[in-house]
Amino acid sequence: GVANYVKQTANSIGYVEFAYAKQNSLVYTKMKNAAGNFVEPNFENLEDAAETGVFDPKKDFQAWLTSSPGKNPWPIAGATFILLAKDKKESNIRTVKFFEWAFVNGDAKAKELVYIPLPKSLKDKVRAYWKTNGIQ
């Protein structure tokens, strides 16, 4: 809806997810990031946002990827989070097995679908969190 409305309204701007913009060949602009650099939305700059974002296991990795530190991160990014109920250990173990499989095998497919895989450093933090919480 946002993209269609922007197309119909002169001199307007909107914000859509990277995959949607790429798949629909939408026009985009560079944005100024926290380091003061003007960057474009691309795999490298979105990966940099994920790599330098502050994902704290003590806060269950909840994070906003806006103004991530570093030279090139795209200044407005987001992550999809999976919520696991603490009292559902058996189903959590099955869910974590799926995500472990995705961590190992899913990066190429994610990029093919124009999504940004999690950086290895973040995957390792998540794995340690699972282990600490007894679900790996």
Description:
With 136 residues, the chain is mainly alpha-helical. The strands form 2 sheets. A two-stranded antiparallel ribbon has the order 1-2.
Topology:
Blueprint: H1 2-8, H2 18-23, E1 31-32, E2 38-39, H3 43-52, E3 65-66, E4 76-77, H4 89-105, H5 107-112, H6 120-132
Antiparallel strand pairs: 1-2, 3-4
Instruction: Please give the radius of gyration in angstroms.
Output: 17 Å
Shape: globular
Task: Return the structural class.
Answer: mainly alpha
Mean pLDDT: 89
Question: What is the element string, with H for helices and E for strands?
Answer: HHEEHEEHHH
Beta-strand residue fraction: 5-15%
Number of helices: 6
First-residue to last-residue Cα separation:
40 Å
Q: Helicity level, as a percent range?
A: 40-55%
According to DSSP, the number of beta strands is 4
Brief synopsis:
The chain is mainly α and 136 residues long. 43% of the residues lie in helices and 6% in strands. The protein contains six helices and four strands.
Q: What descriptive keywords fit this protein?
A:
single chain, 136 residues, mainly alpha, two-stranded antiparallel ribbon, two-stranded antiparallel sheet
